[in-house]
Amino acid sequence: MGQVDADAAIKYGNPDNWSVEDIIKLAKYENPDAEIIYRPHPEIYKKYQKSKFKRKRIEFFAKISSPDEPLPEFFKTIDHVYVINSLTGLEALLRGIKVTTLGAAFYAGWGLSDDRCVIINRVRKLSILEIFAGVYIK
Q1: What pLDDT does residue 48 have?
Q2: Burial class (CB in 10 A: 0-12, 13-18, 19+), 41
Q3: Which residue among 18, 20, 86, 95 is the one 20 to 30 A from 12 at the CA level?
């Protein structure tokens, strides 16, 4: 799932400086027989925001999906999501979809996702209901 390059979530939540292309290559490497689908952020897709997104380079590894399709419908075709720290990762977890985080997502480090970025102050395990309550209720 894509994010806006200049967004604070990328600036501060991507300590290993993952690029979209790197993430797609990782997804393809770890899932060589899977169809990889990249869903750009709507602002990038519609060219409202500047981005390092290079369509032809991405299309070599993945199909590019329009972000105009409602996310719940899109999730019906997905069984694994790779994100830096997009809220899409949390939405996927809530639907029981496997999530790999490559950045310091607020929902990462609690034992529910495959986290590649070490978040040292998160040592407890939380259930999806506890994360949901913390995010949406509290």
Answers
A1: 44
A2: buried
A3: 95
What Rg value do the Cα atoms of the chain yield, rounded?
15
* Alpha carbons within 13 A on the beta-carbon side of 83: 29
Do the beta carbons of residue 69 and residue 88 sit within 8 Å? no
Mean pLDDT of the region 115-120: 90
Cα–Cα dist 29/23, whole Å: 10
pLDDT in tens, 54-86: 667 787 889 988 888 899 999 999 999 999 988
pLDDT at res. 52:
54
| Contact call for residues 107 and 93 (beta carbons, < 8 A) | yes
Task: Give whole-number Cα distances, 134 to 49, 121, 127, 130, in Å.
Answer: 31, 17, 11, 6
pTM for the model stands at 0.85
